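Dear support,

We are seeing what looks like truncated structure output for some complexes. This example has four components. We would appreciate it if you could run it in full and send us the complete token output so we can diff it against ours.
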Amino acid sequence: MSSKNDSRENILSAATRLFHIQGYHATGLNQILKESGAPKGSLYYHFPNGKEQLAIEAVNMMARLIEGELREHFSLFDDPVQCIQYHIQFIAKKFDDIENLKSLPVGLMAAETSLFSEPLRTACLSAFEGWEKLYCDKLIQQGYEDTFAKEISTVINSMIEGAITRSLANKNGAPLYLAAESIQLLLKK
Amino acid sequence: MSSKNDSRENILSAATRLFHIQGYHATGLNQILKESGAPKGSLYYHFPNGKEQLAIEAVNMMARLIEGELREHFSLFDDPVQCIQYHIQFIAKKFDDIENLKSLPVGLMAAETSLFSEPLRTACLSAFEGWEKLYCDKLIQQGYEDTFAKEISTVINSMIEGAITRSLANKNGAPLYLAAESIQLLLKK
DNA sequence: GTCTATAAGCCGATAGAC
DNA sequence: GTCTATCGGCTTATAGAC
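Here is the complete output from our reference environment:
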């Protein structure tokens, strides 16, 4: 891999972390550059459309990252309830060491930018829809009815994003653990 | 009411609206002052601790506002499922006219500021806990077991906040309507 | 491709006249 | 209590040397 890609990737991975933890408006380009070690000139070389483009690519990167985690967690059990509970508890564990929180899904970015930037909104929407597709497929595969699977997937994804916010306010993962418990109520056959 | 209180209330109500729709960092004091018609000097007279104090009072105001709506909706039916569904659909309707969205709960503020300002985090937490107390009391009153009522109240509140974010990304209230439907699964006796 | 210097504007906050 | 002028710092973005 050439140094060109290193620089680009350093910027993008710092941006992905900071945007998703601090939010879009609280994160300055200077902070991203400082953490990535790259100078400002190369940011605008690699991301000519500036902050908005960087944020869109950061959301896409986070989307793929979470998608990978979901695929992994879905391969652990046949039962969707167990898989989804495992996934939520996996997120909840990050709150045990809240000072070193280093990645969260796109909920904050979506809430901040959906009324502010149409391209950013659609990037967040694509992330949500991609994850929900994975929930849905797993549910259908295990015998749930198609329409129910699709609808409950959106509900589950919403619940997870909300429980993350609630856990942030709580300064611990308790609300996420409660959400995990309630998955069996939502998916009771 | 004296003009002193008018000025203070104008600033606070503009701040409440803007903070909860745009977020803390995206909302400038200049914008709040412009919308409220007050000059900058009087903002710092009424809110000597500046932006953070203003945001805390805005969260408290929104907490009381939603609390009033919840009390009203809880008086409509005996069945908690019906009450909560009514409340969620009440929020969902605001997304029919998304351009004129004028108030949302504190989810965005909580997600943005919980790792940023401890006083703001606790203000958001108090808002959440106040609403959840109302859910909990209604559930206990209708025969649900105490521990279950308390836990499911946090889950319901989380789900609502998450469904709001999901509806913002969707640019319509569909995810909130799905969340409303799923309340009966969470509260099935 | 990389890097620096700088522009132009907005931010929150303050001082001080009235 | 109200209002204005202004400060220092930060923001995104750009111009241009290397």
